[in-house]
Amino acid sequence: MSALALSVYGACGLIVAIHVTLLIGGTRVRVRDWRAARHATAAGGSGSEQPALAPGLPVSVVVAARDEEHTLPPLLRSLEQQLSPDFEVVLVNDRSADGTAAIMQEFARRRPATIVVDNSDEPVGCNGKQHALDLGVAAASGELLLFTDADCELPPTWVDQHAARFADRRVAAVFGALAVRAGRKLVERYQAYDQALVHQYSTGTAGVGVPTGCFGNNLAVRSGALASVGGFRALGFTPTEDAALLAALQRTGLAVTATASVGTAIVTAPQTSWRAFLDQHVRWNSGAFYGDGVVGRWSYRYVVLFLVASILLAPLAAWWSQLALLPLTSFTVIALLGAFAAGSLRRGAAAGGSRISVLGTAFRVVAYTPLFMGFYALATVLAMAGVRPSWKGRRLQRARVGQRG
């Protein structure tokens, strides 16, 4: 057997092993969610709709927003519709030039347990989101901090079910799933598949005890755990403060876990253009590819470089047939993981208001998997080349991830 064939078989075997491990981890998370729902039902509730706030655990929901007057009202309505209203809300107006501040103040007038923080300072040594979140955390009184974004909507059990997972005192942080509100455009409908699949990677690694990333718009952290790593600014400059926080918590030996429960899954707005979607993923890839977490950084590098190799080397299969196994393996394992994550594809929120049939879900998995491979290969190449993505209409500064100011 040639050295080329051995190399290809070895690489394919490793990527299959990684994805089998992710499936095992994702299954463990879902089993844990199922047991929690059974426990709530046995206690006299109705499964996912049962309020299960951990006794004696004060909760603060922290939202940092910049120029979000159009997306903020639905989020605030979903906060008002939580089954258990006994929690604090901290809203940070981060240098907004629109009506964001007025919307926050009006919400605070309607809901007394609300604090509005106005920030006019530019960040130093970190990105603007990190600075704004630290201001919100400083104003919060809760022992448990729940973070989400202005362009999200929350299920009515979001606060309760996140809090219930902290009954285990060993847990320092929990992250949940999200669904994209798909519209008629291909870029919007594709994101419903993409986000569910990306979350499955994060959920799978958390399920085997080595979480590598999360979405910071659906994140719960003990305030003491956050303080122990110095807050968000202490992470240094990073375009992905959520993943950096998880890495910092793990370095100190604190437990991070995940939930795939519908009761904690949020709905978020899609990017409206391919350019905006690419910018978002270049930013995410930059943070993941050069992040502080050793396990997360190298596992991510292997997976995305395998995708890049699969795309770039595929044409050479005309001369070296063994290379055809690379893209075939990539497509197969990603499609299987996408099918495993298809529950969020079939929910009405991700499907633009109606359920997708099993056949329709299968069609989307097959059609979108090659797009996923090519898209992430492109985003990775751009991140490695040092391309500065746009964020909130501005180009991110060229700074080394983890750099302290």
Q: How many distinct helices?
A: 13
What is the chain-wise order of helices and strands?
HEHEHEHEEHEEHEHHEEHHHHHEE
List the strand order in the largest sheet. Answer: 3-2-1-4-8-6-9
Strand content: 5-15%
Q: Enter the CATH topology name of the largest domain.
A: Spore Coat Polysaccharide Biosynthesis Protein SpsA, Chain A
User: What is the count of β-strands?
Assistant: 12
**Rg value:** 21 Å
Number of domains: 2
CATH class of the largest domain: Alpha Beta
Q: Give helix % range.
A: 40-55%
The average pLDDT value, as a whole number, equals 82
Profile the largest sheet: 7 strands, mixed
Give structural attributes.
globular, Spore Coat Polysaccharide Biosynthesis Protein SpsA, Chain A, 405 residues, alpha/beta, disordered C terminus
Describe the structure.
This protein has helices at residues 3-42, 72-80, 100-110, 128-139, 158-164, 186-207, 223-228, 241-251, 274-289, 294-313, 325-340, 342-346, 358-384; strands spanning 59-65, 88-94, 114-119, 144-148, 152-153, 171-175, 178-180, 219-222, 255-258, 266-268, 390-391, 394-395. The protein has two domains: 3-20 and 291-392, no CATH class; 26-273, Alpha-Beta Complex (Spore Coat Polysaccharide Biosynthesis Protein SpsA, Chain A). By secondary structure, the protein is of the alpha/beta class. Helices cover 50% and strands 12% of the residues. The strands form three sheets. The protein has a seven-stranded mixed sheet with strand order 3-2-1-4-8-6-9, with helices on both faces. The chain has a three-stranded mixed sheet with strand order 5-10-7. A two-stranded antiparallel sheet has the order 11-12. Mean pLDDT is 82; it is low at 46-53, 347-354 and 398-405. It is globular, with a radius of gyration of 21 Å.
